[in-house]
Design brief:
Blueprint lengths: L1 H6 L5 E7 L3 H8 L4 E6 L12 E7 H10 L8 H10 L5 H21 L2
Antiparallel strand pairs: 1-3, 2-3
Length: 115
Amino acid sequence: MTDYAFQKMKMKVIGGGAVFKLRNWQQRMELFGYKLLYVKINNNFLEKKTPNTHYVSCNYQDYLKIKKQRGGLFWDSLKKVKARIKKLPKISFRDRFISFLKKNEEKYYREIFSL
């Protein structure tokens, strides 16, 4: 779908989102240029049914870089993709980002709110 969107539809950016439970899916999407844009943590007690979500996007420039790295192919083979998946970091960028927020958000906003 990414190939089709960039090649046939001439899109410049593709984006999407998913619930936190799809953590592994999001990390695998990084192999195809989909970078984390932001996370939405449900802190609103009135929206208890709204799950935490993350949003990703792939831009045309990153798509081209990946194709060049893979010899002109966006999808080079299932075997190579599986090998890349095995090499992914144990802690995803999304999880690192969330950890950073948890460690720093409260202190930061306490400082801001006291100004």
